[in-house]
Amino acid sequence: MLSQRLRMARRAKGLTQEGLAEMVRTTKGTISNYENNHSSPPNDMLTMLADVLNVSTDWLLGRVDEQLPPSAANDHKRERTLDELLQEKIDDPDDYYFLDGYLEASEEEKKEIRRYWYDLKKQMKPHHVKESHSPSLYAITEEIKKIK
Questions:
Q1: Which terminus of the chain faces fewer neighbouring Cβ atoms within 10 Å, N or C?
Q2: Model's pTM, two decimal places?
Q3: 50, 75, 100 — which closes off a domain?
Q4: Domain range holding 135?
Q5: pLDDT of residue 74
């Protein structure tokens, strides 16, 4: 069930195996193995796949027929316009600074930013790190500059 649903969700998002692999920091071969039922993802990978594909882990595992839990499905009913989404980002100076820098970055820099972000999220989950407030996008950007 997982192999079929993973392939279905990936295709529905218009992603290649390589594209999905990059988003979850693994290889095309690993995604292929999951889709061909040669191996199963560990729990943390299953969670990342579900997050990236915007489906629930229960749906991927075949435990439910709805791709998203009812509360999450209701959240997606009201689609915001692109203008509303952009305005939301522009209203926050940290978001504006980050978005402006990201949009001007080269493709290689954008890949590196995404890799850093996924690594950071991956590191925080196993350690159950929950911040009382989110770090500012400015702070994240400055941290990325230090790495380079």
A1: C
A2: 0.49
A3: 75
A4: 82-147
A5: 47
